Amino acid sequence: MSTTPGPLCRKFVPVEQSEVTSISKPASFKFRLVSYNILAQAYVKSTYFPHSPAPCLKWKARSQAILTILKSLEADFLCLQEVDEYDTFYKKNMENLGYASIYIQRSGRKRDGCGIFYNQNSAELVIEEEIDYNDLVDTVEDGTTSPKEKYGVLVSGNKEEPKAGSKLKDSQADRGDPNDPRVRLKRDCVGIMAAFRLQNPSSHHVIIANTHLYWDPEWADVKIAQAKYLLSRLAAFKDLVSDKFDCSPPIILAGDFNSVPGDQVYQYLVSGTNSMGPEMADDLPMPLSSVYAFTRGEPEFTNCTPGFTGTLDYIFFSPSGDLKPVSYLELPEAESSDVIGGLPNYFHPSDHLPIGAEFELEA
């Protein structure tokens, strides 16, 4: 009999002393959303994860552990990043669990991408759009507005050498001059957004977006540009959905933003204050709040390796009287035995942890 530990699945915790839970209306509808960077197998190398037990890095073990976790979360929506093997593994296996899905693969030669998996008993897909951040290059080439003026992208900078021990998913090598904004903006990052009709008596519409922003901490200007483009696309998509279906859909934006709480990207997403260069408040297309900040405070970490431990993953939502988080997915503390030594391990098949929330939508 094997004594090897299996994947660990934490529980959803109700929001304490919340108006939402204390005066929950009978007509309200609840649904659960999880965001999870599952770690693409293409990036699983022992040199990147020397701290991980070798059996944990093998595709057969990892894929089954990921499926076990996804099933146990019992989510209505799963926003997954770093999904490779979509056509060969995830699409069919998730269908067997009752999930339909939409997916966008990263640009260039990248093998992974972002997917939204949705329980067909909970929601119906009505319209979707893909986001390719390489489209930002067009803002340089059309010459109408400088990338610095429109998106805050630097047109000069130093080429950074990879840091020792880092998991390099995107090397700068052979990409060209990093001072050229056309090169700088072409990072092969993507996102996907969709409107769903919920299978509740009121047939509410909700917009779900999933993305994975660029990783390099030295290239904050590129991440800011991506965040601005993302929110501008989301605003336009909301207008489209509102007009087409005569509704005012709430927005939930999830993903790996490769940004820690309080940094420039995070502050832009939640407050519209871009602290790069001259301080100024940008008018956001829509207000956004982070689920964890709203309910319990941002977690200590969502990514855990010996080289870096911190919070990079978020679920943002448009706060309104109609949509509120009523529970959140529990996360481990730094002293928890299941994360000591870093991830992936037998308990967690990715270097990231899943985050999640249950939302209540009033009729």
Oligomer classification: single chain
How confident overall, as mean pLDDT?
A: 88
Largest sheet: 7 strands, mixed
The arrangement of helices and strands along the chain is EHEHEHEEEHHHEEHEHEEEHEEEEE
User: Structural class, please?
Assistant: alpha+beta
Rg, rounded, reads 20 Å
**Domains (count):** 1
In the CATH hierarchy, what is the class? Alpha Beta
GO molecular function: 3'-5'-RNA exonuclease activity
Protein name: Carbon catabolite repressor protein 4 homolog 4-like isoform X2
Biased composition (Basic and acidic residues): 158-182
Region (Disordered): 142-182
Describe what this molecule looks like in 3D.
One of its GO terms (molecular function) is 3'-5'-RNA exonuclease activity. This is Carbon catabolite repressor protein 4 homolog 4-like isoform X2. There is one protein chain. The chain is α+β, with helices and mostly antiparallel strands and 363 residues long. It has helices at 19-22, 59-73, 86-96, 137-141, 147-151, 181-184, 220-245, 264-271, 291-295; strands spanning 12-14, 29-37, 77-83, 99-105, 113-119, 123-132, 190-198, 205-212, 251-256, 273-274, 280-281, 289-290, 303-304, 309-310, 313-317, 323-329, 355-361. It has a single domain, classed as Deoxyribonuclease I, Chain A. Helix 7 (220-245) runs parallel beside helix 8. The radius of gyration is 20 Å and the shape is globular. The N and C termini lie far apart (51 Å).
Could you give a quick summary of the protein structure above?
Residues 158-182 have a biased composition (Basic and acidic residues). With 363 residues, the protein is of the alpha+beta class.
